[in-house]
Amino acid sequence: MKIKEMMKFAWDNYKQYALGKNELRPLTKNGHIGNMFGGLRGATVVDALDTLYIMELEEEFQEAKTWVEKSFDLNVNGEASLFEVNIRYIGGLLAAYYLTGEEVFKSKALELGEKLLPAFNTPTGIPRGVINLGSGMSWSWGWASAGSSILAEFGTLHLEFLHLSELSGNPVFAEKVLNIRKVLKRVEKPQGLYPNFLSPVTGNWVQHHVSIGGLGDSFYEYLIKSWLMSDKKDSEAKKMYDDALEAIEKHLVKKSAGGLTYIAEWRGGILDHKMGHLACFSGGMIALGAEHGGEERKQHYMDLAAEITNTCHESYARSDTKLGPEAFRFDAGTEAMATRLSERYYILRPEVVESYVYMWRLTHDVKYRQWGWEVVKALEKHCRVEAGFSGIRDVYTTVPTHDNMQQSFFLAETLKYLYLLFCEDDVLSLDDWVFNTEAHPLPVNHSNFKAKASVQ
Ligand code: DMJ
């Protein structure tokens, strides 16, 4: 099918021009290393493994696996983002292991997991955002206020770390993430909301900025997915998710004059009427979590999920390329469009398609497949170049400039979600798998693995 061809094209070009680098630069036909992964290489290889596997691109999967076996070096020395290494590398390796049973993926995941542990050596156990994978030294991002750690970063470790404990028999990983939860349960939440910046030293909030988009996003996602991954036994996570969503709905969810529902950002009580592309994952999340005692509440959340997904679709539909901007606003007569030049770009992000997949699987309303197909056509028309796929700098012009970057999450997420949108529901069924925030599938614990680690 078409999407499989797109994946093969993305992979083949990466392999030809950038194998072993982190991403492909499709215009200049070379590789990009960047500074997010602390000297680790092959981000695209590890991110692509499970997508190649589920699409039955067998030869290509073998190429990727061989690179992991022969060339993936973990003895590196450099500053890595704990969050990025966890979601892309640990998540990618774990998913590849669970899908294939190949030991190499498991042993690399465990070895890498060990290297992340020193980041948790803080007075509260809340990890710092940056870690040197060689020395184990860790520190906070220079841009994060007053040495704080970021909610979406330390809140997006739970799923992978429970699996690391399960596979290694070493409880340390689970202990680390359960401690994070403990700190978050204890801290006072303004109006029930979770601000994005927390001090790893005092365990208090450093700033009152709340967002379901960047800096906050996957923390909420991992609460509901922790519950699902525990086969619905981790009721503590469900309760935290329900309470957080209730506060978000009360304080952040708004309707525009034109009738579009959106989730604003909150700065110490003042609303910023903006939604980031990243926040568009929330339609899918709210649908996935729409399970409650009563039918009425369930329907309420399914409606909210559908409305948010519709708004995100509008952000695509209102652009000339039919791809959505990095952020869109609802102010001064603007509805679901970027108002700032700096927010008009699209870097092959998955969140809108991700919500289409959940909405499709949970409602079977064909419009979600139609919307997904609009994305396929737009990607082909505006992002496909001679040697791969590239992001674009302005979604509001049909002669867009390319950013010369094929992000690894395009192979891990965007293409995987598009593929799943057009598959039968039993391909990576939502009953048996949860997707980490980089779309790497992790199995639901039907056999009750270490329930003691997830509910205490
Ligand atoms: C991915 O790495 C993950 O989806 C993460 O949660 C957010 N950013 C990118 C994709 O946009």
What's this entry about, in short?
The chain is built from 16 helices and 19 strands. The protein is mainly alpha-helical and 456 residues long. It is globular, with a radius of gyration of 21 Å.
Structural class: mainly alpha
Q: Give the tally of β-strands.
A: 19
- Strands of the biggest beta sheet: in what spatial order? 3-4-5
Calculate the terminal CA-CA distance, rounded to whole Å.
Answer: 46 Å
Ligand roster: 1-deoxymannojirimycin
The global form is: globular
How large, in whole angstroms, is the Cα Rg? Answer: 21 Å
Helix content: 40-55%
Estimate the strand proportion. 5-15%
Mean pLDDT: 96
Q: What are the segments in which pLDDT stays under 50 over at least 5 consecutive residues?
A: 450-456
Number of helices: 16
Biggest sheet, in brief? 3 strands, antiparallel
